[in-house]
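Lab notebook, bench 4. The sequencing result for the construct came back, and we need a structural model before the next group meeting so we can plan mutations. Quick request posted to the team channel:

Model the 3D structure of this chain.
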Amino acid sequence: MGRPLALTPSELSARAFRRQDETADSSFYVSPRFVTHIDDPAIGAVTQLYRELLPAGGDILDLMSSWVSHLPPEVEYGRVVGLGMNREELEGNPRLASWTVHDLNADPHLPFADGEFHAATICVSIQYLINPVTIIRDLGRVVKSGGLLVITFSNRCFPTKAIMLWQMLGDEGHMELVDQYLKSAGNWTDIKALDRSPNPGHSDPLYAIVGRSLGLAPIDEP
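Done. Here's the predicted structure in token form:
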């Protein structure tokens, strides 16, 4: 399960964000994977969290999207936009009004306008980002002031593509790490850590970090 997070300068260096497989992500994701990466109870926990937090009628950015967005089926949103790595998966997602193929590890700038969305989600994918703070900072630009970012994760991953630091940590460390991503970005507030594990010990765990946008443009990198 890894150890709790105790951040040191060396762990937050660029080395900590390397992966076992450093080949281009575009090659890794070239073939579609029409599978889910957490079990049904954990998926249900994601959907329930979205039901509680995402604004009905709002425009939603599904970042690192695929063929399914886990949005509550009974809720209508103004527009759901997906950004992901595989065209076939995105084309097969019935909740997306539009989508774009974009490799965030190659280009962390989001191809969207300031304040374009009422909320954004990242589902069980945060562990693959090599520049997470830069991306989350830019999310603070494209999500309207007061809008939410909902990041969910479990203990599942493609180990060759997850960053080394993620693999060093356990569940508690993962929560602390993602919490620090939002705090380090500098344009998120009201940051909360949630344990939404549906059936501890009997299904996949499900955790979330939620923050509220300050509606600020990205600041210079530290």
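The longest strand covers residues 143-153.
Will bring this to the meeting.
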